[in-house]
């Protein structure tokens, strides 16, 4: 008989778990993880050093697991508000499939393992950066900023922007201007991306008592902020050319993508106050995902083309 | 004192078995990653030691 079956029934709140492995995978926020893997990979690929492919794969996996661990810690802490919002109510903790204690233990164990693996297999600069990223997302954003300030996702966005810096550091052992520029692009992308979502999901956030910008400062102020960030983001998109680690061809793609972002943000800015469908906000949310994916793919393609040019032309 | 124990339901036993298999797979994968990673990182010097 397994130990768990010998637990006395009088224990308060005790129950046998019916959680499936898939529920624990859901705790890792796989969709966020895929974006983290992609941006960390780009950070790694942009570095001027060619890493051992196997160690690079381990590093990417460790960064992905670290990101997943912070997602599990977020779901442990936020189970009360997740249960209120339609978008998050079906997550494993609010539905009771996974207990908060299980989610916490899962998140802490994976955090420790991912940081140790990255530190030992790549270097401790990358390991420390990953630990900082997990801490920033789980403690600074989730436990502190999210429920206390409408600037929550502006400051908290730093956690989501760090993966390319970690990827770069895993290969080079340093943090440099190039990786800081990649950080800046995702950092400036985060507010308009989440505020577009917060506009058409403001009633959800209102019910949960989360002080998102549309609920605190109003829709008009949020639209203005989105537009300002869109201009800053479009400008930051061409910084890789200015810093000399991307070509003019990439710059042309970045300018077009940035112009698209500004245009979609303008549509949101001019959206009538009584617009219930909020199609422009939904369109901007969708475009923002596409924007980041294409921009980073363009950087990757640019680096690949440069490498091939060196190999065959030089 | 007579103690009462929980009798797991069929669904709970099935879920526990799936979780156990998933943990086993994850642990084996982790061991392989650390083993091969150590070989790659340390290289041939790993085996270069006084007998």
UniProtKB/TrEMBL annotation, chain A:
Transmembrane region positions?
32-49, 55-77, 98-118, 124-145, 152-171, 177-200, 226-243, 249-269, 281-301
Q: Which CDD domains would you find in this protein's record?
A: PT_UbiA_Cox10
**Biological process GO annotation list?**
heme O biosynthetic process
Q: What are the UniProt keywords, alphabetically?
A: Cell membrane, Heme biosynthesis, Membrane, Transferase, Transmembrane, Transmembrane helix
Give the pathway listed in the UniProt entry for this protein.
Porphyrin-containing compound metabolism; heme O biosynthesis; heme O from protoheme: step 1/1
Q: What is its main location?
A: membrane
Further facts: Carbon 2 of the heme B porphyrin ring is defined according to the Fischer nomenclature.
What protein name is recorded for this chain?
A: Protoheme IX farnesyltransferase
Organism classification: Bacteria, Pseudomonadati, Pseudomonadota, Alphaproteobacteria, Hyphomicrobiales
Instruction: From the UniProt record, report the name of the gene that encodes this protein.
Output: ctaB
Automatic annotation (TrEMBL), chain B:
Can you tell which superkingdom this protein's organism belongs to?
Answer: Bacteria
Lineage, please? Bacteria, Pseudomonadati, Pseudomonadota, Alphaproteobacteria, Hyphomicrobiales
Q: Where are the transmembrane segments?
A: 21-40
UniProt entry tagged with the keyword Transmembrane? yes
Q: What is this protein called?
A: CoxF protein
Has the keyword Transmembrane been applied to this entry? Answer: yes
Keyword field:
Membrane, Transmembrane, Transmembrane helix
